[in-house]
Design goal:
- It is built from 13 helices and eleven strands.
- The protein is an alpha/beta fold and 329 residues long.
- It folds into two domains: 217 residues, P-loop containing nucleotide triphosphate hydrolases (Rossmann fold); 100 residues, Helicase, Ruva Protein, domain 3 (Orthogonal Bundle).
- The strands form four sheets. The chain has a five-stranded parallel beta sheet with strand order 2-5-8-1-9.
- A hairpin with a 4-residue loop joins strand 3 and strand 4.
Length: 329
């Protein structure tokens, strides 16, 4: 297809994405960076792990996004007594027909909010993560495909450890991004108060601004964003630097990193960078796109050593040093 036609299509789709972001912003005050990342995840069909303190509108954000895209939404509250069948579904006996019928679980929706995923035991986490990877669920003898798009946004509370089960590194790697939700600014909090405490004001409701078929079309268009060979090499070098930091004159990081990012991280960084370029209205990826999303894509994929914990060295600080050491094309 002619590049001019692609550019015009992307410009038109960018205007649609702007309407979606604006609609979410009517209900959710602030958190624009998180909104943008969730829109990117929707377009690339990637699952997201969201970490934040209670009361930061994580649930509201996901529900608002689902309502704005005309998609089905299910919220699963993870608890220690949850069973895999509570998520995927099970076979139910019908006494009248003397047959077993499949009852599909709540995972059959376009947008899934897995609330406090680290409160569920390993079997439940594995059931969810297998469905995320395979995008299908087998109940009895039948395999059911999950809807398209299918995006899981799982949340976890970073300050509670009692009654929680940490996600294994191999399972965390299946999330394309890990987002950290921070406190709103003072101005944003004032806007929130005026919005929700005014007795004369009517609380905003979400309008459906993006049909599902259009989401699929825009996602296909986002996949056509050009990734130059130089940018591809830049992405590979960033990921390689997390595995072999001494080759990039980062010898101080060697004792801090037990395991670097996997090849899945390379693919994720490329896909998310393309999505970021797309929602910025560009048909090509630039190094700034890669830098903008590198922390979100890599922070949960680095396995740090005990020395890193002892010296308060975080994954984000390591990624900062990696981005500073790898030559920009």
């Amino acid at each position: 297809m002619d590049q001019t036609i692609i550019n015009n299509q992307i410009a038109s789709a960018h205007a649609t994405i702007d309407r979606l972001r604006a609609e979410i912003g009517r209900v959710v005050v602030g958190q624009q960076a998180i909104v943008d990342r969730l829109v990117v995840a929707l377009l690339i069909r990637g699952h997201v792990l969201v970490e934040g303190l209670p009361g930061l509108a994580k649930t509201l954000l996901v529900k608002t996004l689902a309502s704005a895209i005309d998609g089905t939404f299910k919220r699963i509250q993870f608890t220690p007594d949850l069973l895999p069948a509570d998520i995927t579904g099970t076979m139910i006996f019908d006494p009248g027909g003397r047959t077993f019928n499949a009852r599909l679980g709540p995972i059959f929706a376009n947008l899934i909010l897995g609330d406090e995923i680290n409160r569920a035991p390993a079997k439940v986490q594995s059931a969810l993560l297998e469905a995320m990877q395979e995008r299908q669920v087998t109940i009895g003898d039948t395999t059911y495909s999950l809807p398209d798009p299918f995006v899981v946004i799982a949340t976890q509370n970073p300050i509670e450890h009692e009654g929680t089960y940490a996600l294994p590194e191999a399972q965390v790697d299946r999330f394309v991004m890990k987002l950290k939700v921070d406190y709103p600014s003072a101005d944003e909090e004032l806007r929130m108060l005026s919005l929700y405490l005014d007795p004369t004001a009517e609380l905003p409701t979400v309008r459906r601004v993006l049909p599902l078929n259009e989401v699929r079309e825009i996602a296909h268009l986002a996949a056509s964003v050009h990734l130059d060979d130089k940018i591809s090499r830049y992405i590979v070098q960033i990921v390689t630097a997390t595995r072999r930091p001494s080759e990039f004159r980062l010898t101080s990081l060697v004792p801090h990193i037990s395991y670097g990012a996997s090849p899945r991280a390379t693919l994720a960084l490329a896909h998310v960078a393309k999505g970021h370029a797309f929602i910025q209205g560009r048909a090509y990826v630039i190094p700034e796109d890669v830098k903008a999303v590198a922390h979100d894509v890599l922070r949960h994929r680095l396995v740090l050593s005990y020395e890193a914990a002892a010296e308060s060295m975080t994954a984000d600080r390591i990624i900062d040093q990696v981005l500073g050491a790898v030559p920009v094309p």
